[in-house]
Specification:
Elements (H helix, E strand, L loop, with lengths): L1 E4 L11 E4 L30 E3 L1
Amino acid sequence: VVMVMDNGYHDDEMPQIWEVIGGADKGGVIVRVDEEVSSTPFPERLTTGSLVAE
């Protein structure tokens, strides 16, 4: 589960910033190689509070 953080810019060149707000009880959020749920997961998870640029 992620939440968008307003970066203050409304320009298409600026990335959206997302904060991970879920997964605390499971050691973080699983990240996969592709958008398919069946795709290979990366060996590490994103921890709660991680920031991700889209």
